[in-house]
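Hey, can you fold this one?
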Amino acid sequence: MQKAVLETLQAMRQKSPLVQCITNLVVMQVNANVLLAAGASPLMAHAQEELEDLVKIINALVLNIGTLDKHTIASMNVAGDFANKYKKPVVLDPVGAGASRLRTETALSILRTVKPCIVRGNGSEIMALAGELGENKGVDSTKGSLEVKEQAKRLARNFQTVVSVSGEVDMITDGTQFAYVQGGDPLMTLVTGIGCSATAVTGACMAVAKTPFIGAVSAMALFAGAGEKAGKKCQGPGSFLPCFIDELYSADYADAAKRVTME
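Sure. Predicted structure:
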């Protein structure tokens, strides 16, 4: 797996995949800057009138339900339909699933109809989608990644997808195999947009990886290394984000790959 991660991260930098993000308004600029620093190309567009033209040219589609309204939901469904039509891979970030009925039902609907290749979220979100009550605090998680191992496995199998769960140790499963990623820094939870950016970069890695599982693992490995190094250089959450973006830009892919272990 470590060799596959290294190759995927190198390919992302070389090929600069175009990633369309229909994402929440809070994190749009952060997502775009993180994608650029990681070596990908961001596209932030959601107008239904242009979605077919855009989906034709992208390499991956990321759907993030952070700031939902009826227009955003409609755009996600339309984009998802076109992604299926043109065989473009999709990543879903079910932000706040379990916190409200709208969020949970929207995420489940996308899982059923769009059939994303990867679902990336925190422990509470994954637990909610797997059919159990996640103890969300707003859109934040109160469940660690390793606490929801069985729920992640069940979700992956039920929807034939890869589930990537962020936490102190990130866990990724396709329902059969499990990967674990060590690294990061506690400050990552204090900066808005880091988790959503991990989903965006997951889309970029998925676009060039041999499998969605490898793509999901590669993105979390890259973030773990950059987050750990940024945490050692910054003074607090205010300076963490620019340090983190710089670390993504100059990332040591070999170091990122070494952070991955398989069960």
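The first strand starts at residue 18 and ends at 22. Let me know if you want another pass with a different chain boundary.
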